[in-house]
Amino acid sequence: MSAFGIVQAVVLALALLASLLVAFRKLLPRTAKRVQARLSAAMDRPGRSAPLRRLGQWLQPDEARRGGCGSGDGCSSCGGCAPAPAGRDEAVPLEFRQRGR
Amino acid sequence: MSAQSLRIALVGNPNCGKTALFNQLTGGRQKVANYAGVTVERKEGRFVAPSGRVLQLLDLPGTYSFDAASPDEQITRDVCEGRYPGEPAPDLIVCVADATNLRLHLRFVLEVKRLGRPVVLALNMMDTARRRGIAIDVPGLQARLGLPVVETVAVRRGGARALIERVDGEVPLAAPAEPDDAASRADLHAQVRALMAATVTMPRATDALDDAIDRWALHPVFGLGILAVLMFLIFQAVFSWAQPVMDAIEAGVGTLGTWVTSALPPHSALHSLLNDGIFAGLGAVLVFLPQILILFLFILVLEESGYLPRAAFLLDKLMFKAGLTGRAFIPLLSSFACAIPGIMATRSITDPRDRLTTILVAPLMTCSARLPVYTLLIAAFIPHRTVWGVFNLQGVVLFTLYVAGIVSALAVAFVIKRLRKDKSEHALLMELPSYRLPNVRDVALGLWERAKIFLKRVGGIILALTVLLWFLSSFPGPPPGASGPAIDYSLAGRLGHALHYVFAPIGFNWQICIALVPGLAAREVAVSALGTVYAMSGSDDTIANQLGPLIAHQWSLATALSLLAWYVFAPQCMSTLAVIRRETNAWRNVAITAGYLFGLAYLASLLTYQLARVLS
């Protein structure tokens, strides 16, 4: 294979991989976060090499890194230190009750 | 709480300027508009006060009372009372009141005071109050209320200085908590009357200019006429003003594409990915940015002016007959931008059945993602000529498509009303704000946000799906000795030909069938997908970069009209379905929405296609 052929194959493979990743994260955000968290936990484990652990930490989903309180820049940045559950859903779903007769 | 930080909640009646203050203080860009019910969620931001103290700000949905009737009002009540899950009670409540309408707003101030928490009252829109000759004895009001009172003008630079100085100082002492019962609530009205008599002088209850405009704008006949003319002019402008910029973008994308791909071997896969995939696909969508911005310019100006609640008032009777409440107007209007915020805005609807009906019909409103599809087909098939002396025919067709969406939503709501046999009436209680000249900065920021959202979509999900479609359209390659276009042998080509059996009765060719699949993720992806599919099918790259003339040459008018009819109804947006699931907590509602919308889309396309074929 020519040098151009190799470069072309690498660029096409990267483009495909990046597109799959973007589509996966956009279309299945919850599953994508779960997979990301698992992958990160598997990499960032005692006994793993330092670069792998760093990659694992980098891969950590945003909420886990921020402690789930929405403080933005990490623990103690908000000053409130609210014990908020991670990924709190603010949606107020519909609730139907039987009408009084 | 650390000694250096403070959690502050912004509360007040709807449309008193809480979010404008929030944006002013935090530098945020939350949506603001001149009508009630814009904020339906709790928003959080922070800023550093001059003393170096970190102030964490919560922007809460507006409410008239803590006797919460709708889900968004419940959030405000729960946060203020310290009952919101996982959220400590605020250290300080800043109660924002519209200085031009204190008779209404002071009642809620008194309710907040009774919570027994530190409160600061911000008298907002003081500039308008002074202009209207309203005199407020601020020290007197402060003494009588027993609360610190500051003046603010949230829409003016530096208009929140007094508030910043106040919250940066000592936290005021809390008034003792008072019991909350029916008798004490009735007493609040008497207290407001006494406060108003002692501290506020108003030359007249309403603004003279507002009254003069409303005599025409709210007239049962002229008012509807004005509304129709306004809407009509917007769609005329979308087609008439955008063309020069669209041409420039098209030329720019073409030049960039030629320049980028010139260094690559012409028949290489990389050349094809860039030329047929990325430039043909993304260029086809990007060109619609000016039209989207023109549409939003009008929507933002109308939102800022205070006209929209008047439109809700005018249409309330019609909406009620169709089975919708007047409160559905704002969520449905938001759906013209995107159905997702529209569906979320239904949280301001108190009755769960009314809310569900509004959620079910919201996807029928013509969102901005439909615009690229509509304008592509209109520009390709509807002649650019003037009708009745002044109107652009293409603009008339676009207006008709928007009207078709509205009429369908009303018809579906009417059927739902019949099915649920609901005879109950829900009166529309809506505050009509004062008219005001749109703030140029807010409108510009709004347009910038819309452009960013669109460009982010183009560079994100649309680019990703375009690249994936290029792969599916390129592999596997044609067998040796194959004579047809390579795409015929690819995975996408085979899928398109298989789907063609289902869509042939409504006039869709196999290229449209392919485009519908990635178009499920977002409507405008269908345009980029068509660009890619046609670029892959043809050999002439110059033609492939101009999708409009190509489809005008290859499709029949009946096919184009059928596709337009399909896009009026089809729920080609997975995010909308996901939000319906979240807001209604039931997959059943998602199935109902997707089922009825796809059914209507197929039926409408079938009728349109067959009729157009017979007539042509």
What does this structure look like?
The complex is a heterodimer of chains A (101) and B (616). Chain A is an all-alpha fold and 101 residues long. Helix content of chain A is 54%, strand content 0%. Chain A is flat. Chain B is an alpha/beta fold. Helix content of chain B is 59%, strand content 7%. In chain B, a hairpin with a 5-residue loop joins strand 2 and strand 3 (54-59). The radius of gyration of chain B is 28 Å and the shape is elongated. The interface between A and B is large, with 33 and 46 residues.
Residues in helices of chain A, as a percent range: 40-55%
Biggest sheet statistics of chain A: none
Quickly count the helices of chain A: 4
Distance between the termini of chain A: 80 Å
Shape of chain A: flat
Class by alpha and beta content of chain A: mainly alpha
Strand content of chain B: 5-15%
Mean pLDDT score of chain B = 87
Which stretches of chain B of 5+ consecutive residues score pLDDT under 50?
539-544
Major beta sheet, strand line-up of chain B:
2-3-1-4-5-7
SSE order of chain A: HHHH
Percent in strands of chain A: under 5%
Question: Could you provide a short overview of the structure?
Answer:
Chain A is an all-alpha fold and 101 residues long.
Which helices and strands, and how do they pair?
The complex is a heterodimer of chains A (101) and B (616).
Chain A: H1 3-27, H2 29-43, H3 50-59, H4 62-66
Helix pairs in contact in A: 1-2, 2-3
Chain B: E1 5-12, H1 18-26, E2 43-48, E3 54-59, H2 71-80, E4 92-98, H3 102-113, E5 119-124, H4 126-131, E6 135-136, H5 138-145, E7 149-151, H6 161-168, H7 182-199, E8 200-201, H8 208-217, H9 222-261, H10 269-286, H11 289-305, H12 308-321, H13 329-334, H14 339-344, H15 352-361, H16 370-381, E9 386-387, E10 391-392, H17 393-420, H18 440-474, H19 491-503, H20 510-516, H21 525-537, H22 541-544, H23 547-554, H24 557-569, H25 574-584, H26 587-615
Parallel strand pairs in B: 1-3, 1-4, 4-5, 5-7
Antiparallel strand pairs in B: 2-3, 6-8, 9-10
Helix pairs in contact in B: 3-7, 9-10, 9-11, 9-17, 10-18, 10-21, 11-18, 15-17, 16-17, 16-23, 16-24, 17-24, 18-21, 19-20, 20-21, 24-26, 25-26
